Amino acid sequence: MVTYLDSTYQEALSLTKEARDYLANRASNRHPWLKPEDRLQICCESMRLTTRLTQVVAWLLMQRAVLNGEVSLDEARKPDNRISGQGVCEPSDKLPDGADPRMVDLMGRSHQLYMRVARLDSQLDRADRAKKKAP
């Protein structure tokens, strides 16, 4: 599990850096030819991207703290330390026409990573239920 979390953490950091570079570069070119509503949607999707990645990295850091003995598993199971933002992190139906292929790729990969970590987070619930059932 430690190796899996470490590789997932490295993947999350790499994707976060890639998204940061993309968004910083794109900031100088706001697609002035797009309709205002399309520009707004692209901005919203950019925020969705950063929210997903922030949630993932925060959750992974908490799990690393548990593995290092810095935080108890009970503390990690508290709602404030779980992955959240499901409503925000769900993909939108469609990106606007002005979304370039790199943005589409970042959105897809960030969503896949978010869903993978959400499944890991749900295992904390299973472990907690199993613990309560044990005599």
Q: How is this fold's topology laid out?
A:
Elements: H1 2-27, H2 36-67, H3 73-76, H4 86-89, H5 101-133
CATH architecture: Orthogonal Bundle
Following the backbone from N to C, one meets helices and strands in this order, namely HHHHH
Give the end-to-end Cα distance, rounded to a whole number of Å: 26 Å
Helix content: over 70%
Number of strands: 0
The total of helices stands at: 5
Mean pLDDT, all residues: 86
CATH level-4 homologous superfamily: Protein of unknown function DUF1465
Q: How many whole angstroms does the radius of gyration measure?
A: 17 Å
Parts with pLDDT < 50 across at least 5 consecutive residues? none
Strand content: under 5%
What coarse outline follows from CA principal-axis ratios?
elongated
User: CATH topology, anyone?
Assistant: Helicase, Ruva Protein, domain 3
- The overall number of domains is 1
Structural class based on helices, strands and sheet pairing: mainly alpha
The profile of the biggest β sheet is: none
CATH class: Mainly Alpha
Oligomer: single chain
